[in-house]
Amino acid sequence: MTQPLTTLSGHAIAMPEENIDTDIIFPARFLLITAKAGLGRYAFHDRRFDASGAPVEGYVLNRAPFRPEDEAAPFIVAGANFGSGSSREQAVWAIAGLGVRCIIATGFGEIFHANCQRNGILPITLPADVVAGLMEAAEGQQRFALDLDAQSLTVGNQTFTFDIAEERKLSLMNGWDETGLLLHQYADAITAFETRQQAMCPWLYAKED
Amino acid sequence: MTAQTLYQKLWAAHVVADLPGGEALLYIDRHIVHEVSSPQAFVSMRESGRKLRRPETHLGVADHAVPTRSPRADGVRHGTIEDAQAAAQIAELEANVRDFAVPYAELDGPEQGIVHVIGPESGFTLPGTTIVCGDSHTTTHGAFGALAFGIGASEQGTVMAAQALRQKPAKTMRIALEGQRHPLVFAKDIALAIIARIGADGAAGHAVEFTGEVVRAMSMAERMTLCNMMIEAGSRVGLVAPDAVTFAYLEGRRLAPKGENWTKAVAYWQTLASDEGAAYDRELVIDVAEIAPQVSWGTTPDQTLPVDAPLPDPAALPDGPAKRQAEKALAYMGLAAGQTMASVPITHAFIGSCTNGRIEDLRAAAGVAYGRKVAAGVKAIVVPGSAATRAAAEAEGLDKIFREAGFEWRLAGCSMCVAMNDDRLAVGERCASTSNRNFEGRQGPGGRTHLMSPAMAAAAAICGHIADVRSLGA
């Protein structure tokens, strides 16, 4: 169960860069931590903090109102291929730990994209010219407003619509646990599949010789 | 019936149910579990009180966080790990596989190694199966004609409980490899050249199938390198249709089908190749004769050039993302516009990883290292991808060649590919690396990574700077 997401408003963190990969979002050395909560402090760690651990002056997450402690910026706006690289779900948990619930980009790493949806974060893909405008608006500290049911994003006097599969939308809006849902709806279908597959590919069910 | 691609056949054979919105519930045959991405999935199983639906379809191993050295003469690592977090993570995996009855390749056992090396070696990876792992380089297993892709920890929890995942079908892309390559141009060079051409997100949304005479002539190790690297072009799925090379590799492996099942399996696997005339959403033909040894110069895998080509000049690029990226990468890498890579001094050479840690890779590197010495001031390490690979290399005497040349000969693990164990770069250090990602900080904060083939990394270690292995010879 994740926190349901229906509407959202506030500032957007501008990250005007392509290929922000999962090592930038969550450096691998922190993967030794086995907790899911409290990872926000590691998000974008090596951009946010210098080698001594001091905040890097001028970096967007160190400036009001975009700092996590301001609790005012639940959006990120980024360029192409955001979240490329590793499958580490910590990248998503860390971003969630910043208080972000919606990421707007011209494209996403696919595994990252899937991980977002499973953690109550909405990834929105929009064309480059639209994202460029949103980037400016974010940098200018304009407020963003999301209405997930209407599939719309409003910034200033402009409203943009975006695509999302109905099932994914319902899952996000209701905070559904996908595993529970699948087991509830498809347990019989899974068993039937296994019966068919075992007849056709018995080696996949053979006990080790 | 319309002609189908390999991907479409694999997909169709695993659909449990069609879902609204074009998605499907896909049956998952195999799941590989490592210490770093699985703890939270097991926590979700415990919290929900769920059991693994088919424990025998999972395979556990520790690879990412493990040190590749042991203070003990016998190489035993268990109980010797100094990093308390790493030791705790491995202990947690051991408790999880025990409590949930998951088959486990023991840390000091003969089958330990990198997930994408031991899956194939043990015969766990089979054609025609769906394989997932909490690791993006799961693309590797597609070299066997398996539908294999990386997933997050939440999805791992779903696979554990339901043996199925909701998935959206990918588009299909064929990359045909034709022509005659230089003997010192390897699958790694071909993969890097493709990524440089199509971009770090150039295959996003597509399942990439490799075809053509060059692929047919490749070993399974080279096919795995190709598929492994496709995630660096944004694709979750790389594929090669299974053939006689695949079957010869698999026959007799511990978990491969035996007896009558083997005959049945091979008959089925032979039907998996894409049908004549099957349509792909995208097609690309690569003439491998045009590919020189490749070296990445920047901080995304598509920032790669032939070793003898000049680096781009951002000033000559139009304003936009490409210019910004080039400027940022050159600054991070400490390189200048217009210079060539073949003279850039290195501090480290790393031979290993799920991309290039197999016996064929070690042979290629040893061929270059033989009778030569690692340059003064270079720390060069060879990390076999698995304990079995390590043993095979030692049986051939490769370890002696490396040691005599001044390389360190390590125990199996992910090592310096991922900077979450003892093997990592310090700020400003520069590594000739056979791994797969040159992201900022990938090999350690402030470290600089140059991706290349094992032969090229060995050449760099010998020369003390990046060098064209064709002029050094093997």
Automatic annotation (TrEMBL), chain A:
<dbReference type="InterPro" id="IPR033940">
    <property type="entry name" value="IPMI_Swivel"/>
</dbReference>
<keyword id="KW-0100">Branched-chain amino acid biosynthesis</keyword>
<dbReference type="GO" id="GO:0009098">
    <property type="term" value="P:L-leucine biosynthetic process"/>
</dbReference>
<keyword id="KW-0028">Amino-acid biosynthesis</keyword>
<protein>
    <recommendedName>
        <fullName>3-isopropylmalate dehydratase</fullName>
        <ecNumber>4.2.1.33</ecNumber>
    </recommendedName>
</protein>
<feature type="domain" description="Aconitase A/isopropylmalate dehydratase small subunit swivel">
    <location>
        <begin position="3"/>
        <end position="128"/>
    </location>
</feature>
<dbReference type="Pfam" id="PF00694">
    <property type="entry name" value="Aconitase_C"/>
</dbReference>
<keyword id="KW-0456">Lyase</keyword>
<dbReference type="GO" id="GO:0003861">
    <property type="term" value="F:3-isopropylmalate dehydratase activity"/>
</dbReference>
<comment type="similarity">
    <text>Belongs to the LeuD family. LeuD type 1 subfamily.</text>
</comment>
<comment type="pathway">
    <text>Amino-acid biosynthesis; L-leucine biosynthesis; L-leucine from 3-methyl-2-oxobutanoate: step 2/4.</text>
</comment>
<dbReference type="InterPro" id="IPR050075">
    <property type="entry name" value="LeuD"/>
</dbReference>
<dbReference type="GO" id="GO:0009316">
    <property type="term" value="C:3-isopropylmalate dehydratase complex"/>
</dbReference>
<comment type="function">
    <text>Catalyzes the isomerization between 2-isopropylmalate and 3-isopropylmalate, via the formation of 2-isopropylmaleate.</text>
</comment>
<keyword id="KW-0432">Leucine biosynthesis</keyword>
<dbReference type="InterPro" id="IPR000573">
    <property type="entry name" value="AconitaseA/IPMdHydase_ssu_swvl"/>
</dbReference>
<dbReference type="InterPro" id="IPR004431">
    <property type="entry name" value="3-IsopropMal_deHydase_ssu"/>
</dbReference>
<comment type="subunit">
    <text>Heterodimer of LeuC and LeuD.</text>
</comment>
<dbReference type="InterPro" id="IPR015928">
    <property type="entry name" value="Aconitase/3IPM_dehydase_swvl"/>
</dbReference>
From TrEMBL, chain B:
<dbReference type="InterPro" id="IPR050067">
    <property type="entry name" value="IPM_dehydratase_rel_enz"/>
</dbReference>
<dbReference type="InterPro" id="IPR036008">
    <property type="entry name" value="Aconitase_4Fe-4S_dom"/>
</dbReference>
<feature type="binding site">
    <location>
        <position position="414"/>
    </location>
    <ligand>
        <name>[4Fe-4S] cluster</name>
    </ligand>
</feature>
<keyword id="KW-0479">Metal-binding</keyword>
<feature type="binding site">
    <location>
        <position position="354"/>
    </location>
    <ligand>
        <name>[4Fe-4S] cluster</name>
    </ligand>
</feature>
<comment type="function">
    <text>Catalyzes the isomerization between 2-isopropylmalate and 3-isopropylmalate, via the formation of 2-isopropylmaleate.</text>
</comment>
<comment type="pathway">
    <text>Amino-acid biosynthesis; L-leucine biosynthesis; L-leucine from 3-methyl-2-oxobutanoate: step 2/4.</text>
</comment>
<keyword id="KW-0100">Branched-chain amino acid biosynthesis</keyword>
<dbReference type="InterPro" id="IPR001030">
    <property type="entry name" value="Acoase/IPM_deHydtase_lsu_aba"/>
</dbReference>
<keyword id="KW-0432">Leucine biosynthesis</keyword>
<dbReference type="GO" id="GO:0003861">
    <property type="term" value="F:3-isopropylmalate dehydratase activity"/>
</dbReference>
<comment type="subunit">
    <text>Heterodimer of LeuC and LeuD.</text>
</comment>
<dbReference type="InterPro" id="IPR015931">
    <property type="entry name" value="Acnase/IPM_dHydase_lsu_aba_1/3"/>
</dbReference>
<dbReference type="InterPro" id="IPR004430">
    <property type="entry name" value="3-IsopropMal_deHydase_lsu"/>
</dbReference>
<dbReference type="InterPro" id="IPR018136">
    <property type="entry name" value="Aconitase_4Fe-4S_BS"/>
</dbReference>
<dbReference type="GO" id="GO:0051539">
    <property type="term" value="F:4 iron, 4 sulfur cluster binding"/>
</dbReference>
<dbReference type="GO" id="GO:0046872">
    <property type="term" value="F:metal ion binding"/>
</dbReference>
<dbReference type="Pfam" id="PF00330">
    <property type="entry name" value="Aconitase"/>
</dbReference>
<comment type="similarity">
    <text>Belongs to the aconitase/IPM isomerase family. LeuC type 1 subfamily.</text>
</comment>
<keyword id="KW-0408">Iron</keyword>
<dbReference type="GO" id="GO:0009098">
    <property type="term" value="P:L-leucine biosynthetic process"/>
</dbReference>
<dbReference type="InterPro" id="IPR033941">
    <property type="entry name" value="IPMI_cat"/>
</dbReference>
